[in-house]
Design a protein that fits this description.
This protein has about 190 residues and is mainly beta. Helices cover about 10% and strands about 30% of the residues.
Length: about 190
């Protein structure tokens, strides 16, 4: 196991999460499938990402959003974020089917793994990514955790590289569970 949960496998194991035609093309066909569940909550994203970049749309409030979570914190600070399941650096949609409420600290932990995946894409090419929002029950709109799994091929080393992390998110998202993050706090 390498840094930050990075796993390296040999070629005898599958280096793709999805089959060749899953997104309607070959292994270099980028696309994403967004899945929602009860109450239109975002539940899962399956994607083949072949390039990085960001889009900064105005984000809608995800299912379960409460505007009171960030009241009185000042400009540029937040306790609770509109977390992308498929990260912004992968051009993940700024739409309800890709957003969930989560603590800023959980969002920062997800970003660490997403940035490692983005660096891999920039150096080696396409990566299959599966992101799942895990809920305590089918009525909840706030996930208790978010899991990221990704695989890509490093052809120079003839090795498959896997990334994986599960970030826990308190169901209450209250001021005791979620720390403020912002301009000074990072």
């Amino acid at each position: 196991m390498g840094k930050s949960g990075l796993l390296v496998h040999n070629l005898s194991q599958s280096c793709n999460l999805f089959s060749k035609g899953y997104f309607g093309g070959d292994f270099n066909t980028p696309d994403a499938i967004y899945s929602t569940g009860e109450n239109d909550r975002a539940e899962m994203v399956e994607a083949r990402v072949c390039e990085t970049g960001q889009i900064r749309p105005s984000l809608p409030n995800p299912e379960g959003w409460d505007s009171k979570w960030n009241e009185g914190l000042g400009r540029g600070k937040a306790r609770v974020a509109r977390c992308h399941l498929l990260g912004n650096q992968f051009k993940g949609a700024g739409a309800k089917n890709n957003l969930v409420p989560c603590c800023q600290t959980a969002n920062h932990k997800m970003a660490k793994t997403e940035n490692e995946i983005a660096e891999f894409i920039e150096n080696y090419g396409c990566v299959d990514i599966l992101v799942t929002a895990n809920y305590a029950n089918k009525e909840d709109t706030i996930p208790t955790s978010i899991s990221i799994t990704a695989k890509g091929m490093d052809c120079s080393k003839k090795k498959c590289t896997s990334f994986g992390v599960t970030v826990f998110n308190p169901k209450s998202l209250n001021l005791f569970d979620c720390k403020v993050a912002g301009a000074e706090n990072g």
